[in-house]
Amino acid sequence: MTMRKFKTGNLIFTALFALLSVFFLMPLVWMLSAASKTEKEVWTFPIQWIPTDWNLVANFKAVWMGDVAFGLFYMNSIKIALISTIATIVISAMAGYALGKLDFKGRTLIFTLMLAFMMIPEQATLVPRYIMIKELGLYDSHAALILMGMFSSYFTFLLRQFMIGIHNDMLEAAELDGAGFFRIFWSVVLPLSRPILATVGIIKFIWTWNDYQGPLIMLNSTKLYTIPLGMQFFKEEFGTQISVMMMASVAAILPLLILFLALQKQVIDGIAIGGVKG
Amino acid sequence: MSESAVTRKTTGAEPKTYWTRKRREQLAGWLFIAPEVIGMLVIAVFPLLFSLFLSLTEWNLVGGLSAIHFVGMDNFVELFRDNRFLLALKNNVLFTIGTVPVTMLLGVVLSALIHKKLYAKTFFKVAFFVPYICSTVAIAAVWQALYHPSKGPINQILMQIGLSEPPRWLVDTSFSLIAIMIIYVWQLLGYQIIIFLAGMTNIPEELYEAATIDGASGIGQFRRITLPLLGPTTFFLAITSTISSFKIFDMIKFLTDGGPNYSSTVIVYQIYEEGFERFKMGYASAMSWVLFIIIMLVTSITWMTQNRKVHY
């Protein structure tokens, strides 16, 4: 696009939108503000956006150093999200390579079935998956969540769409050098797919971090809880102490928000590809 | 076919072994796809079929595997006499009607303005997208405080502007579902904006330039160029949003437990309640299949009407 001159109309719209987005994000601003206040000041009206009586440290302590082990929930969430994300990337990238670049019997059939699998809603299989996990003796373990979270026909589809666009010359050149299919996958396809792998990784991480339904059904012991379940637990313990609840919400949201802001291009592009091609 | 003359020549040098290039590629293909295929069979296909079987039985999990009784279609018959389930079905329909058109309308208008009229587009995309990446549960906790019937800022403002008895939102049987719809629209709007913007970027700029030369106004251009060319995007969003509104669960579980008095219950919440609180596995599976069939119907509309899927 060519450089345009600043138009007054567009400047006005931009200013209006700036106001609109502040208004739109008001609930989050309110959360931050409430998390820094004393319980009494949370409810003052008109809203006291900047606390007169800062209580940030006490609320922080209540969340991180109280009886409810929020730090433990954090470690659990990080562990599950990291392992599920890595496993998904590996499994989906392998499948994407096979579907996009290898010629084998049944490929078209598998690909078609894969598109069909995308339609099976997780919510419709909650009961049988719970029974399976129980029968396998994995109920109330992180392994249950990771097992349920590492296969994704959606991400396989995204990776396949990307990998099919990699030039065959590069794969053939590697083959001339004597590389086998595994070596080609590892040292040619994966490095070339870095942008889409980053996109898939960050989106999968966010989804797993925020997942509430899975842990709700698969976990029982408090010490295994992830952050969303921890929030539930916290609500039962501190439901009436809004300032502390808001501090817990900040703790659940902030790390992901920072990760998102740092990688916003990958996240937004990834969501847009899913939408345009899906 | 990805095989080229070059590669055939290299491998042709060793034709005597059993492991020809073709056979090796075949094997590699199967090995690379195997984990995903096995995984999908185990976590999606088998459970779906298993739940079909369960839906024809009566089984209280507490009784163990020996307590399974085959009851035929009884569960499905019972479903349509179950007032809670019927209410859940109705609430899901209301939820779709109340959220999908609003979100899409706001989404298309806001993204058209962002696309055509604003500077710092990325900033606005990011700003509207923030709620979508936030933990639904954490966001729900914030809104619960905002909705507090007597002290919450929303009702304080409503009382300020003269509404002496504002709705009691989440604890009000006639407002609980609406309160959740508002949060849902707020969280989903950014997603719609991203998808609409992606669709708009694909519209050739020349069309707008030509229209400007012909003297078409901004609103005229939106109606005659943007909207018609966004057809596929709009269609995609209508279908996916309808499907996801039928899957709503997190906010309802966290905020209202389907209440007060089942006023905000939905299908997935009923599956959860029957299956995981009452342990009626057969009955919950029958509900799951109703959900699955609804989603299949909505999706099959996409497949029947959208032939352009072929370009995969």
Detailed description of the structure:
The complex is a heterodimer of chains A (278) and B (312). Helices cover 73% and strands 0% of the residues of chain A. Chain A has 278 residues and is mostly helical. Chain A has one domain: MetI-like (MetI-like fold, Orthogonal Bundle), CATH 1.10.3720. Chain A is globular. With 312 residues, chain B is mostly helical. Helices cover 71% and strands 1% of the residues of chain B. The interface between A and B is large, with 100 and 100 residues. Chain A: InterPro entries: MetI-like, MetI-like_sf.
List the helices and strands and how they pair.
The complex is a heterodimer of chains A (278) and B (312).
Chain A (H helix, E strand, L loop, with lengths): L7 H17 L1 H10 L3 H4 L13 H9 L5 H32 L5 H11 L8 H10 L6 H8 L3 H11 L4 H9 L4 H12 L1 H17 L2 H6 L8 H12 L3 H21 L1 H14 L1
Helix pairs in contact in A: 2-15, 4-15, 5-8, 5-9, 5-12, 10-11, 12-16, 14-15
Chain B lengths: L4 H8 L8 H35 L1 E2 L10 E2 L3 H6 L3 H35 L3 H13 L2 H11 L6 H8 L15 H26 L3 H9 L4 H12 L1 H16 L3 H6 L11 H11 L3 H25 L7
Antiparallel strand pairs in B: 1-2
Helix pairs in contact in B: 2-14, 4-8, 4-11, 5-8, 11-14, 13-14
Membrane topology (chain A): Multi-pass membrane protein
Pfam family, one (chain A): BPD_transp_1
Family (chain A): Belongs to the binding-protein-dependent transport system permease family.
Calculate the terminal CA-CA distance of chain A, rounded to whole Å: 28 Å
Structural class of chain A: mainly alpha
Regions with little confidence, pLDDT below 50 for 5+ residues of chain B: 1-9
**How many domain modules of chain A?**
1
Mean pLDDT of chain A: 87
For CATH, the homologous superfamily of chain A is named as MetI-like
Helix content of chain B: over 70%
Count of alpha/pi helices of chain A: 16
CATH superfamily of the largest domain in chain B: MetI-like
Q: Work out the number of β strands of chain B.
A: 2
Note the quaternary state here: heterodimer
Elements of chain B, N to C (H/E) = HHEEHHHHHHHHHHHH
Radius of gyration of chain B: 26 Å
Radius of gyration of chain A: 24 Å
Low-pLDDT runs of 5+ residues of chain A are: none
Query: Distance between the terminal alpha carbons of chain B, to the nearest Å?
Result: 15 Å
